[in-house]
Amino acid sequence: MLHTVTRSPFQSHSLAQCLQFICPGDEILLLEDAVIVAVSKNIYFDLIKNIGVKIYLLEADIIARGLQGKCDKDLDVIDYKGFVLLTEQHDQHMKWA
């Protein structure tokens, strides 16, 4: 399953709720304000770093928030084409907002 999270964990519980339902083989795409999680050395980054699933960030949202070069290098940054490919690879999709 592909889980997309759009809200900052500093303003919403959507990421915490998402993490409660993660299963092996799932993937997470952080969009919009949720990309703030990828900035190293915050409590939410520590939660996702060791969750055991692949985590992606949308490049356009990183740029829009001025976070280029500030996100952890272990997370994969994808463009809109990569976003489309992710949705094609997963039969199920859950949006956490």
UniProtKB/TrEMBL annotation:
InterPro entries: DsrEFH-like (IPR027396), Sulphur_relay_TusB/DsrH (IPR007215)
UniProt superkingdom: Bacteria
Keyword Nucleotide-binding assigned: no
Keyword Ribosomal protein: no
GO cellular component labels: sulfurtransferase complex
Keywords, ordered alphabetically: Transferase
Pfam families the record matches: DsrH
One example of a Gene Ontology biological process annotation: tRNA wobble position uridine thiolation
A GO MF term: transferase activity
NCBIfam families in alphabetical order: sulf_tusB_dsrH (TIGR03011)
Name this protein carries in UniProt: Sulfurtransferase complex subunit TusB
UniProt source species: Photobacterium phosphoreum
Source lineage: Bacteria, Pseudomonadati, Pseudomonadota, Gammaproteobacteria, Vibrionales
Name of the gene: dsrH
